[in-house]
Amino acid sequence: MKSTEEKGEDGRSATQLRPLSCTRSVLNRAHGSASFSQGETKILAAVYGPKAGTKKNENPEKACIEVIWKPKSGQIEKEYEMILKRTLQNICILNVHPNTTTTIIIQVVNDDGSLLPCAINAACSALVDAGIPLKYLAVAISFCLAEDEYCVLDPNKLEEQSMKALVYL
Fold this sequence. Notes:
Helix content is 21%, strand content 33%. The chain is an alpha+beta fold. Its main location: nucleus. This is Exosome complex exonuclease RRP46 homolog.
């Protein structure tokens, strides 16, 4: 790992973010969509809805948020789906469209670290693009504590793998 002054393999210091990029309205058939990338990590988010009806065991007096995680390969991250759902339920104004479901599909295009924060940023951008009423905008970032006790902001996959601890904010 690198100290705050040292440059890593990608040329960044421990406090520098990787390049960020966000483009909205990237999918034609979705009600809202966004592409978000942090360095080589890239996520596509699509919003469909609100559509009439809520999911089973949901409150019909409020809107329901459904998150579907589609990995590039491998297993679906149910934990990420749950975290995203809770985060998005907290920022969406759920009583504007009661008894409806809004579906957010997260497609992982490439994972080079900080995947969950990238997905949160993409989902929030897609909700804005869809015109879903929000209390506020959510932004997310991660950092890790390296073996040499330095914090590394926005770690890539290699940095995440050699970490002592990882935190999402």
